[in-house]
Recover the amino acids of this structure.
């Protein structure tokens, strides 16, 4: 397919590289910073468009990847869809439930495909965990426990993600939304039982730590989630507990460490469980896998891609936590 990318930062560059690896064609890019757009265009042999409107008007562009800050993501997606382009939007796809609500409404009316970039669904360890869970390898699902975070970097509290007008929230909305989405992907619907959004270390007006306790509508399943940018060491640890064992996924590759899946099988007499370990030392291919799924959706195939409704529900849960915490930035 022929793509355009809006947003030439870190994620936009990853998306462009994934397109190149797949053999898709990047027609053009656009960024608020013309220098970034020019540099990215030169790197990937594309055109630097002067504005999103100009990119959307191009007949050569079939689909658009939106990798911008949260304040403009949903607005750009609406414009792209209205221009007849298929759209893949980097999570969370907006700042708040209002932004996502507009996206859901238009997605229901248009024939173009709109999907959300919850790329963690396409990590090999999480894909394997899905297979284990659906094959009843750990029996009936009981609950989730997960933590995800990083230690920030110098000046982190002055970046756009720390600005509520641009980000809409802090660490819960940035990384925590992946945990909420994964719980829903594995275990169905959840609602907030209680939560706390706290600013413990970084000098910024949004949360640097978020704690969520979720429960399914029937009360049979629950999830304890912690998203943090005071981990000091990049960390991903996701556990799925069943009545016959548990699945644990650690690492995401790169600075998060090698992606590994542990399958624990409880013995009838309890005691130490049987343990199987599965390592995924190869490079992160989730970006390419996600693009493959996106094109599958365009061709009428149902895939694991997140839908606008998924992003809306995840952000509603996070905003319930913000309200419960008395957040001043919403």
């Amino acid at each position: 397919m022929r793509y355009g990318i809006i947003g030439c930062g870190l994620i936009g560059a990853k998306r462009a590289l994934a397109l190149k690896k797949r053999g898709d064609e990047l027609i053009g890019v656009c960024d608020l910073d013309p220098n970034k757009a020019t540099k990215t265009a030169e790197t990937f042999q594309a055109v630097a468009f002067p504005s999103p409107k100009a990119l959307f008007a191009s007949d050569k562009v079939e689909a658009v990847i939106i990798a911008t800050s949260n304040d403009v993501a949903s607005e750009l997606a609406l414009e792209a869809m209205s221009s007849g382009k298929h759209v893949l939007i980097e999570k969370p796809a907006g700042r708040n439930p209002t932004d996502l609500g507009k996206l859901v409404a238009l997605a229901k009316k248009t024939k173009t495909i709109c999907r959300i970039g919850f790329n963690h669904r396409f990590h090999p360890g999480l894909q394997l965990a899905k297979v284990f869970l659906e094959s009843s390898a750990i029996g009936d699902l009981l609950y989730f426990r997960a933590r995800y975070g990083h230690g920030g970097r110098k000046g982190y509290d002055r970046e756009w993600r720390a600005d509520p007008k641009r980000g809409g929230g802090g660490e819960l909305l940035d990384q925590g939304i992946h945990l909420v989405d994964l719980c829903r992907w594995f275990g169905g619907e959840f609602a907030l039982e209680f939560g706390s959004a706290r600013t413990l270390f970084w000098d910024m007006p949004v949360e640097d730590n978020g704690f969520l306790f979720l429960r399914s509508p029937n009360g049979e399943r629950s999830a304890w989630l912690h998203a943090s940018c005071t981990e000091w060491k990049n960390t991903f640890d996701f556990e799925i507990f069943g009545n016959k064992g548990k699945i644990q996924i650690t690492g995401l590759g790169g600075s998060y460490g090698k992606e590994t899946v542990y399958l624990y099988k409880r013995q009838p007499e309890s005691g130490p469980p049987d343990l199987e370990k599965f390592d995924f030392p190869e490079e992160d291919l989730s970006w390419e896998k996600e693009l493959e799924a996106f094109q599958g959706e365009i061709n009428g195939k149902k895939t694991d891609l997140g839908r606008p409704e998924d992003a809306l529900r995840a952000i509603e849960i996070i905003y319930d936590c913000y309200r419960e915490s008395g957040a001043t930035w919403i």
In short: The radius of gyration is 20 Å.
